[in-house]
User: What shape does this take?
Amino acid sequence: MSDQLYRNRYGLDCDFRLETNDTLRRILSRRSHRRFTGEPVGEDLLRSLFAAAFSAPSKSDLQQVSVIRLTRREAIERIASRSRNVAWITGAPEFMVWCGDSRRIRRLAKWRGHPFANDHLDAFMNAAVDTGIAMQTFIVAAESAGLGCCPVSEIRDHVHHLARELALPDHVFPVAGLCVGWPASEGDVSMRLPQSVTVHENRYDDTNLLTEVAEYDRRREAARPTPPQAQRDVNRFGVTTDYGWSEHRTRQYARPMRTDFGAFVRRRKFDLS
Ligand SMILES: Cc1cc2nc3c(=O)[nH]c(=O)nc-3n(C[C@H](O)[C@H](O)[C@H](O)COP(=O)(O)O)c2cc1C
Assistant: This one.
């Protein structure tokens, strides 16, 4: 049973004794959900999930995360309408935007009469990392209650509009939106790269990367083949029989995306030097 969880996640037989408990089983079989029943999440549950999310570790205990829960449907619709790919976010009973917040500590520095002497890339990075960790803590908590979630970074495609919609001040930036609701279907486990690629011992080593990824592509396609019509950007790259995760994702990144994000962050007064 637990070996099957491993096989579903990695497409490989498990070559060690997989330790399991409820939490591990739930994490191993987790998946993003993009379609939801209309049932509301419930205020107490939502507040409990925020309580869990903000229990996440935080760099130097600086607590540089803010989340903006959108309760006005018109605002969610305006955000969704900017991006064809994420129109589905309007179907989620809860939608929120997780933000890195370096403003709070800077205000407090002024209040306490101290210079803020760390205005460089690390300040941005720490807030971004803390936000990702808090959001994922929220997701794990939500999934433990049977909810489904999907992060949405595509809302950053129109980051200036998003920042205006959310009234984000300087030094606060959106990391990702998050849809939350009761899943409308079971969904599918998405296969991951093997540990031979992602877990390194003592030193970084990607000698066998291409062989490993070619095998991973084959495993993934065998489990869930990509139909030719689902191949990405065929006008530019054509249809290939050798399609898989690596082809899909490198086609995706062959097009520039969010090239204005650095400028947005700088305009929000981050010094990224
Ligand atoms: C930071 C972040 C941003 C994401 N943004 C989007 C998004 O904009 N649109 C989307 O459909 N999925 C988005 N996802 C979900 C990923 O596509 C999904 O996690 C990935 O395909 C693996 O699938 P799984 O979560 O079901 O394992 C995002 C995930 C993360 C962690």
